[in-house]
Design brief:
Chain lengths: ~400, ~130
């Protein structure tokens, strides 16, 4: 299908995702509004009220209830979606683990926003980075188009019988969620054909075959075995995410990898970055390349599962890698992405240096100049004979 | 619920077989978990789901008990509160009266005694042989 002939629309990131949800038309959506995700839920509720979709829309009194309701719905046997941000994501915390351990194929849109305090509604990744060990698959999108595409692909990934694991996809609050950008949509028929009909496993509403979901594991039970089973599914998810992306590329002409490499072939210095800042970084890489600097970039797409072997392969020839985290892990050696990338490169020989950068917390602007500063640190480290300090470097921080 | 009391209603004879044995005789589990202690991560049902209903009848929890309910059926007015509150479905009802306890599953929690409005159920120390 020549989707390139389809018109390009100008939409906000939230509108793009609400449109994707409308085309997916899940059986049930349970959600609570929170800035900057509100528009998704609001637009979807409007579609339900207008009869444009057939979903049951459940309004709830909190995100803890939203996640609990989607678990009930998915366990009942329905294709179920929800959306959240920041504090809402944090309020779902304990129930996120339950959704994942019950292996319910829920799809959740999470619009990245800082966690309080001080109270802050702007973009950073501390909400979902904090949820990286909940057992959910995590896909970070870069722009409006990818937010739409990831939403549709997440359905296929979560529902894959090889893994059956809930999937959350993210995009940056305000930068993507509220700003207007280009979007090329598929038709509803294309989306419906791509996702296919929903097949429930052991649904509770199959009254002829009653099941118990979420039982006590016993006094000397099988909790440990179930956790290993979850992790094995996470390993298999790498293949599933790749296969779904390949199939989606045939349909849409847009291909997404586990990670997104840019001008890495002969790069000596490279930056690893998540989300919308990748656009600014790409531009900076081009600028440095025009000056003869061998710069490159990796954008993180799949963060859980983390494709460590793919990172090692992509970055093993790079001399110095800078990892830009839009979330911090207080007291750790660096931000969450830094820790992953550094671990992924540990077995490389020669081993690239990996340096941590923190940027954009609470929506602090990140300018091309800031990324150039980061590249300058990497270049200096690449030329230096002495090892470079791996202390965090903060981009665009107000210094004393 | 209201229970019509019939004068001179015949007291039921005590059950000869415990309930679990009756159920087990009627229906053997089709989901074979006999060697579940040896199951590795890939053999379990997705999400720890129990795919066969009613198999808790085979999981005897009576051994956890330190106190045991005693029912005085003469005092029972058939209100059924004990039956509905019992977390282990261990109250044996016949002709709308509590007549006994399924001791293979009763954990001795005492909820039945707490809820009984006519004090027909009291908790006693469970003296095991």
């Amino acid at each position: 299908m020549a989707t390139t002939e389809r018109e390009i629309m100008a939409v906000t990131g939230n509108e793009a995702v609400a449109e994707a949800m409308g085309q997916i038309d899940p059986d049930v959506v349970c959600a609570y509004p929170i800035t900057p995700q509100t528009e998704v839920v609001q637009l979807y509720a409007q579609m339900v009220a207008d009869g444009k979709v057939t979903s049951e829309f459940v309004t709830v009194e909190s995100e803890h209830s939203a996640m609990s309701a989607v678990i009930g719905s998915a366990a009942g046997g329905a294709r179920t979606m929800t959306a959240t941000s920041s504090q809402g994501f944090a309020l779902m915390w304990e129930v996120l683990f339950i959704a994942a351990s019950y292996r319910l194929p829920i799809v959740m849109t999470t619009v990245n926003r800082a966690l309080s305090g001080p109270i802050n509604i702007h973009c950073d990744h501390s909400d979902t980075m904090g949820g990286r060990d909940t057992g959910w698959i995590q896909l970070y999108g870069e722009n409006h188009q990818e937010a739409y595409d990831n939403c549709i692909m997440s359905v296929r990934i979560a529902e894959s019988m090889d893994i059956r694991t809930p999937t959350m996809h993210m995009y940056d609050g305000y930068v993507i969620s509220g700003a207007i950008g280009p979007l090329q949509m598929l038709t509803k028929e294309q989306v419906q054909t791509f996702i296919g009909p929903y097949h429930a496993t052991n649904p509770m509403l199959d009254t002829k075959n009653p099941v118990t979901v979420g039982p006590f594991d016993g006094l000397h039970g099988w909790y440990f075995e179930h956790k290993v089973s979850q992790n094995r599914a996470m390993d298999r998810a790498l293949t599933v995410i790749r296969d779904v992306a390949d199939e989606y590329a045939e349909l849409s002409g847009r291909h997404y990898g586990l990670l997104d490499e840019y001008r890495l072939e002969d790069a000596e210095v490279a930056i690893v970055v998540v989300g919308s800042t990748a656009g600014t970084t790409r531009m900076t890489v081009d600028k440095l390349r025009s000056r003869g600097v061998k710069a490159g970039m990796v954008r993180v797409r799949a963060f859980r599962p983390f494709p460590h072997a793919a990172y090692a392969k992509a970055l093993e020839h790079v001399k110095v890698v800078g990892v830009m985290d839009r979330a911090d892990s207080f007291g750790a050696q660096g931000g969450p992405v830094f820790l992953e990338v550094r671990a992924a490169l540990y077995d490389s020989d020669p081993r690239p240096q990996v340096l941590p950068f923190i940027y954009g917390l609470g929506g602090r602007d990140i300018f091309p100049d800031n990324i150039e500063q980061a590249f300058a640190v990497l270049q200096k480290a690449a030329q230096s004979k002495k090892p470079t300090s791996t202390e965090r470097r903060y981009l665009n921080l107000r210094e004393d | 619920m209201t229970v019509e009391k019939k004068a001179g209603a015949k007291r039921p004879a005590p059950l000869k077989k415990p309930r679990a044995a009756k159920v087990a005789a009627k229906k053997q589990p089709t989901w074979d978990v006999s060697d579940i202690d040896a199951w590795g991560p890939d053999r379990h049902e997705l999400g720890a789901t129990i795919i066969e209903a009613g198999n808790s009848v085979f999981n005897e929890t009576g051994g956890w008990r330190s106190e045991v309910p005693k029912i005085d059926s003469e005092k029972c007015d058939g209100c059924m509160l004990c039956y509905f509150y019992c977390p282990d479905a261990s109250i044996i009802i016949e002709n709308n009266r509590a007549v006994g306890i399924d001791l293979e599953h009763c954990k001795g929690c005492g909820i039945c005694a707490k809820e009984c409005p006519t004090d027909a159920i009291i908790m006693m120390v469970d003296e095991k042989e």
